[in-house]
Amino acid sequence: MSSLLSDLRIVEVSAFVAAPLGGMTLAQLGAEVIRIDPIGGNIDYRRWPLAPNGTSLYWTALNKAKRSVTLALDKPEGREIAQAIITASGEDAGFLLTNLPASGWMGYEALSAKRDDLIMLRLTGNPDGSAAVDYTVNCAGGFPMATGRGGEPVNHVLPAWDVAAGLYLATGLLAAERQRRRTGRGQEVTVALADVMLATVGNLGYLADVRVNGAVRQPMGNDLYGAYGRDFSTADGRRAMVVAISNRQWKALGKATGLADRLAMIGPLMGVDMDDEGGRFQARDAISAVLAPWFAARTLAEVDGAFAGSGVLWGPYRDFGQLVAEDVRCSTANPLFREIDQPGVGPLLVPGSPLGFPGLGERTDHRPAPGLGQDTDAVLADLLGLPSAEIGRLHDAGVVG
Questions:
Q1: In this structure, are 304 and 339 located in the same domain?
Q2: Do 118 and 93 meet the contact criterion of CB atoms below 8 Å apart?
Q3: Does position 20 have pLDDT exceeding 80, yes or no?
Q4: How far apart are CA 240 and CA 302, in angstroms?
Q5: N or C: lower Cβ tally within 10 Å for the chain?
């Protein structure tokens, strides 16, 4: 799989989540991704969580399989070198991925003047170019108001819009590359974090629900909207989520718990069709009242044993530590993962790309994140053809790191 995009060379000038994730997505599919940072690292280089020695586990996790170049981007000569790397020759080069302010030396006009087929992927906060981050976009999107049980908003810790935006950036770059192959033309491709949120709200039907039905999704805890699903406490203080969307899953739940007859009585009592997911949603409190004692009388392991092979759709709640300790999917038993030695951190279990391409051998590229600036000299020599004496001069002048 690491050969899929091996002919692409992409330059990334970025920080935080979205653009680094987009670049890493392409790097793990084999693209050569060169991340350019200021000397000493960008504003995300020391972001939490940190290893005991201060290495950012966040930064290393989002920059796996890339090359790292550091330049004095506050100096004209450093900016000129960055431009040269971005616009270097090559049929499958000339790509820039960024979520930083793109003006002046890093603006599309300046770069395309040096390479007219340049493809630039640029992430902004709002469509008008003004700043926004995941939290300021998320709070406006309705989801925090529909999360939890009361009237106060609840922010989730997953940076969903950053993640989605990063994947949009990777998809957009590949689409623009395909068009360039057909036409020979470069272009600037933009995506706004707020538009990623708005598109998702629309694609999931929430905007249509307001327009068509005048309805606003209300918070309902962990219940599954429009079908049956709820969390339950177990005898050992753990929690499990159970979902029954299809009739097959619904019947499997009744059979595995031995409560099929009691659950069947709910429909006539409440006047709902229990063979319809909407009917089960309407009867969710009655269903849960029947199921709750069954879960409360069993440990999580006993629930697991009762549901194994039954067709019941369920899952245990875990914190991150329990995920690592208990879930076999989070181990090298899953081809997604491999143990690597991450410089500055030590042995780590790291994921590659979740995409699987049967027949291509190795699942994905599991190379660790680079040390900051470790590839600077090699990129200057191999890509730009600078002799060692010139590279030494640049070091002495504080232009390269």
A1: no
A2: no
A3: yes
A4: 12
A5: N
Place of tokens 């009592």: 269
Sign of torsion over alpha carbons 7, 10, 16, 22: negative
Backbone CA torsion sign across 189, 190, 193, 198:
negative
Alpha carbon distance 388, 318 (integer Å): 53
Domain count, the chain: 2
| CA distance linking residue 165 with residue 78, whole number of Å | 29
359 backbone φψ class: left, alpha, beta (φ>0; ψ -120 to 50): left
For the whole prediction, is pTM greater than 0.90?
A: yes
In contact, 179 and 10? CB cutoff 8 Å: no
Torsion of CA 163, 191, 15, 86, to 10 degrees: 130
Q: Are residues 195 and 247 in the same domain?
A: no
**Helix 18-27 vs helix 160-183: angle between axes, to the nearest 10 degrees?**
50
Whether residue 19 contacts residue 166, with contact meaning beta carbons closer than 8 Å, is answered with yes
Q: Listing from the earlier edge strand, what are the strands of the sheet with 313-316? A: 228-233, 239-244, 313-316
- Sequence length of the chain is 401
Q: Kindly report, residue by residue over 199-248, the tens digit of the pLDDT.
A: 999 999 999 999 999 999 999 999 999 999 999 999 999 999 999 999 99
Burial group, residue 231, by CB count within 10 angstroms (0-12, 13-18, 19+) = middle
pLDDT in tens, 357-374: 887 766 667 999 999 999
Give the domain range for residue 53. Answer: 9-201+331-396
* Any domain includes 120: yes
- Rounded Cα distance between 19 and 36, Å, is 12
Q: Which two tokens stand for residue 377?
A: 């000299």
Residue 222 counted as domain residue? no
In a domain, 59, yes or no: yes
* Domain assignment present for 293: yes
Residues annotated catalytic, as ranges:
162
